[in-house]
Amino acid sequence: MIADANLPVIFAGLMALSVIVYAILDGYDLGVGILLPLNNDQQADQMVASIGPFWDANETWLVLAVGLLLIAFPSAHNVILKALYIPSAIMLVGLILRGVAFDFRAKVAQVNKHRWNQIFKLGSCIASASQGYMLGSFVMGFEDSFMAYSFAALSALGVTCAYALIGSTWLILKTSDDLQLRAIKWAKLTGKISFVGILAVCIMNPLINQFVFERWTTPPFAYFMAIVPFVCFTLLFIGNLVLKQLPLKDDSGCWLPFLITVVVFIFCFCGLAFSFYPYVVPGELTIWDAASAPESLRFILYGALIVIPCILAYTVFSYRVFWGKVEDLRYY
Amino acid sequence: MADVFLLSRLQFATNISFHILFPSITIALGWFLFYFKVRFNISGHPVWMRIYRFWVKVFALSFALGVVSGITMSFQFGTNWPGYMETVGNIAGPLLGYEVLTAFFLEATFLGVMLFGIRRVPSWLHTVATLLVAVGTTISAFWIIALNSWMQTPAGFEMRDGVAHALDWWAIIFNPSFPFRLSHVLLASGLTASFLIAGISAFRILRGDNKKAPRLALKTAVFVAALLMPLQIFVGDLHGLNTLEHQPQKVAAMEGIWDTQKGVPLLLFAVPDEKNRTNHFEIAIPNITSIILTHDPDGEVQGLNDFIGEHPPVAPVFYGFRIMVGIGMLMLVIAWFTSFKLIRNKPLSKGVLYSLMGMSFSGWIATLAGWYVTEIGRQPYLVSGLLKTSEAVTDIAPENVMFTFILYLTVYVGLLIAYLHTLFLMARRAVEIEEIQPEERLQQKHFPKTLNITAGELS
């Protein structure tokens, strides 16, 4: 039997898991949308085909993350979504436009296809930027100040760029020839911007936030916090070196940039998560303040423990089915 | 500037009305697809694959619209109705959570295999993927209807300091109105999908598509509708009796009964006047409502005047109910008449085809009307007897709610137009696709090679 006091910790962990899985998975397909070229229909088709079988399941991780927030920490859900009312609505419209454009573009005449491509790209940019904006406002404790808005705006840019980075490395993995070369270019550029972005957050976050400052400078968390930027910068640097070598013969190593980016994502996320733990609303609500009744958490937990391994298993199955370069998806 | 309460209600109503259109198609269409695929596996006849290929596109399109509008709703619980989760979050949360865990991932993951995996996995595995998508959409309906039914007829909980706490999950899920509501909704989806398939197929035939695929699809759909409609009437009747037991004020509004009385007549038409608490222009058949509701011509039925301040607005419930029943009757007549013709191998006249085409979206109208009856019928409560809708609303600035309301409304109207436009575009184009690929028929045994399509086309 799990003690009542541990339930919120477990749910915070599950929520963190679904947020990071979401950021990686929907991150790459949003990134592909952000990068969608409007001047080359054939490449656009390939790029969309590379995410076709996955985007819907990827987005479900967002539903799970928001769902877990709603289920496990309802009062935090209310506070957060009230504070982020407008940006979350804008994100939803972005996700709606993108989700439907994906489907409509394949079913309409060529004239309209271009318009749906534009909508797909626009929706992806809106969704990414508003997620970044919301992350920024969260970090700033939903403050109502010029400083907070500027930080949120910067964060919007940063997240959009990070998604474009992981999207381009996904394309390096899934494509070849011209499109792959293009993706390598995109990855080099977005990698450098991400580098600057992470640096900016590392400097700004402890400066503007007393709690974070203490967390970053007081052991034991301080040790971990020191590792995070170090690992991220080293990996981005190595990633850049790898990109300069690509593409290699037999396309070996095409998976390396994607893997590196995933690890950077995980480290950045852990850095952020541990900066605020155990607060679910920075400076206001801890996970224990906000948690639902134990009997409800327990009811969902037992189900989750059975179902989540199944979800992971069939997710792996689906990635195995669509393994390999995207060209194989075309039936001519 | 209108108030937050009204705007939030309008926004939620818009959202849920838009959302419900698509699950009401996909739940049953998933099972239709499974049936088409199995028929193909058994017979090896490419016509079943052609039917599958056409309708799987419609499924994908409807599914995408359902997903994106569904995500919006899960956000609105927190943004517009914070009092809802604060009061009943301990109950609603786990039910919604189970929907995500057991249904969303299943359908979303296997949708990818179903749409794009046809050449990458063996045919049987593709059939299993189709089955799992159908199962996923149905499980999704199970959880969401469990929560909705619990809001109508709450059970299995206790209130502590104004917050609902779960006592018995079995009683919460299988609450008194759940079995009736779930079967009513699943049958409604079956009818919605049937009439959509029959209507679009009739459209294709009327446009000169004389291939086997639309005719066979039409036949299948009409037979299914003819079987489901009487079942739906039966279940609807049981559902009504259950509502009378647990929510008599809703039934009183549906029937337009103001005073508690014996030998209640059935109002075919009337104009309810809530101000003067009476009806105008009544057209009534004596004693029928008493017979339907109490199975006794002189049975007593409670009237709205017993529930002053606690009953729903009468007019929308009253009219909504009549629209739903009216369309149901029309469905029954058309489905049976067409089936009769089909069984006797008579060709379908243009008139029949046009009426099927006209009924393409009748399921949507009936579902919406029925949904309004049950949801508006619960007012002024959000959770019957526990939480009034007005107590759950947010205190966000009305300008913000106005902004998002207009935003969603614009997007939804645009999408609905695009959806209908694309649906008919696909139906028109299906003719051309079949005509330019006669060689397909020669290769019917080598199924994968006959699929002359791109990944993009199937999305």
TrEMBL record, chain A:
Q: Which InterPro entries match?
A: Cyt-d_oxidase_su2 (IPR003317)
A GO BP term, please? aerobic electron transport chain
Q: Which GO terms describe its molecular function?
A: electron transfer activity; oxidoreductase activity, acting on diphenols and related substances as donors, oxygen as acceptor
- What Pfam families does this protein's entry cite? Cyt_bd_oxida_II
> What keywords are assigned to this protein?
Cell membrane, Membrane, Transmembrane, Transmembrane helix
Member of which family? Belongs to the cytochrome ubiquinol oxidase subunit 2 family.
Give the residue spans that cross the bilayer: 6-25, 83-101, 122-142, 148-173, 193-209, 221-243, 255-279, 299-322
Lipid bilayer topology: Multi-pass membrane protein
Subcellular location per UniProt equals: Cell membrane
Q: Which GO CC terms are listed, alphabetically?
A: cytochrome complex; plasma membrane
What protein name does the entry list?
Quinol oxidase, subunit II
Automatic annotation (TrEMBL), chain B:
- Asked whether the UniProt record includes Transmembrane helix among its keywords, one would answer yes
Q: Give the UniProt subcellular location, in the record's own words.
A: Cell inner membrane; Cell membrane
Q: Name one GO biological process term.
A: aerobic electron transport chain
Q: Which InterPro entries does the annotation name?
A: Cyt-d_ubiquinol_oxidase_su_1
Q: Determine the domain of life of the protein's source.
A: Bacteria
Per the record, membrane topology reads: Multi-pass membrane protein
The UniProt GO MF terms for this protein read: electron transfer activity; heme binding; metal ion binding; oxidoreductase activity, acting on diphenols and related substances as donors, oxygen as acceptor
What are its GO cellular component terms? cytochrome complex; plasma membrane
Residue runs in coiled coils: none
Family per record:
Belongs to the cytochrome ubiquinol oxidase subunit 1 family.
Protein name as catalogued: Quinol oxidase subunit I
Q: Which organism is it from?
A: Paraglaciecola psychrophila 170
